[in-house]
Design goal:
single chain; 317 residues; D-Maltodextrin-Binding Protein, domain 2
Length: 317
């Protein structure tokens, strides 16, 4: 299978001036240092928001945040290349054995995306996507949109998956009981890469995290993208209780109340190698698990329950 690779380099460098900022002088804040994060595209927008807000409180702390997939985040964290890895899936036993310590921070979901001008869009919105159909799509068993929607249409299907080891692919595949390595499709690097590929291909289908499928200003799908609803009860149609994809707010509400299944909804993690010892890293994680939760919904994520936050804060003790 020919692989199409989109190279996406995502990075943000938030640096403090060499002289002590006025904010720090006024507050007497003495927290300094640099925190490096890398990993899941799913958590990247949220992580950037947290760093921006944290710097308003602790202006002498610098951040370097880069995307690259959950696999890279885990590898970098375990190797000590970064202070924190961003991981959009559950931690594996072998990773924990190597010292990975995961902090659940927020929740989001992976959703199937298609081109907004797909000729069979109307039918797809009515019947949704079943698990067995998804499995056949990402196994090259279905070649036309007619086979997907049950018509005589010969319009070809172009299926996309991720080329990088990532939580989005692992979580989406888990919804229909397979693994990322079982997904057979044109391979694209990164969440932004898949969204771009689908936007450019009228017969394309892929999957994306919420923040790459929905514009967080309008709360609607990005221009050129449409969301295929999941046929959760597998009855061949989208019932009113399954129809919640018009805005990201509607989808988030459905994830919160359990109408949207897990997977493909899941917790997103910040991962360190062992319990962190750098004061700035400890304070940042405490912030994420407390005051930082207030920014989750506006950034397109779901905040965690007080109990779950408390459980994760205990890991810093």
């Amino acid at each position: 299978m020919k692989k199409i690779v989109y190279v996406f380099l995502a990075g943000v460098l938030l640096s403090a001036c060499s002289s002590k900022p006025k904010e720090a002088e006024a507050s007497g804040d003495e927290l300094t240092g640099e925190i490096q994060l890398s990993g899941a595209f799913a958590l990247y927008p949220m992580a950037v928001k947290w760093t921006e807000e944290f710097k308003k409180i602790h202006p002498n702390v610098r951040f370097d945040v880069s995307g690259g997939g959950a696999g890279k985040g885990m590898t970098d964290a375990l190797a000590g290349v970064v202070d924190i890895g961003m991981v959009s899936r559950e931690l594996h036993a072998e990773e924990v054995a190597k010292g990975a310590l995961g902090f659940a921070t927020v929740k989001d979901a992976v959703i199937p995306t298609i081109n907004a001008e797909n000729p069979d869009l109307e039918s797809l919105l009515k019947i949704g996507l079943k698990k067995d159909v998804a499995k056949k799509l990402w196994n090259e068993e279905l070649k036309t949109w007619g086979e997907v929607v049950g018509t005589s249409s010969k319009t070809p299907v172009h299926v996309f998956t991720r080329s990088d080891a990532c939580g989005a692919a692992e979580t989406f595949a888990a919804w229909f009981d397979v693994k990322q390595e079982n997904l057979v499709a044109a391979a694209i690097f990164g969440d932004p890469g898949i969204a771009d590929a689908v936007r450019k291909d009228k017969v394309g289908i892929g999957y994306n995290n919420i923040s790459y499928a929905y514009d967080q200003n309008s709360k609607k799908p990005f221009e050129g993208l449409a969301i295929i609803p999941l046929d959760v009860n597998e009855n061949g149609q989208i019932d009113p209780e399954e129809d919640f994809y018009q805005t990201s707010d509607d989808l988030i509400a459905a994830i919160n109340d359990g109408r949207f299944p897990s997977p493909p909804a899941r917790d997103l993690y910040l991962v360190t190698k062992g319990r962190p010892t750098k004061p700035e890293v400890i304070e940042f994680l405490k912030y994420v698990l407390s005051d930082g939760q207030q920014f989750a919904e506006e950034t397109g994520y779901i905040g965690l329950s007080a109990d779950k936050l408390a459980q994760n804060l205990q890991k810093l003790q």
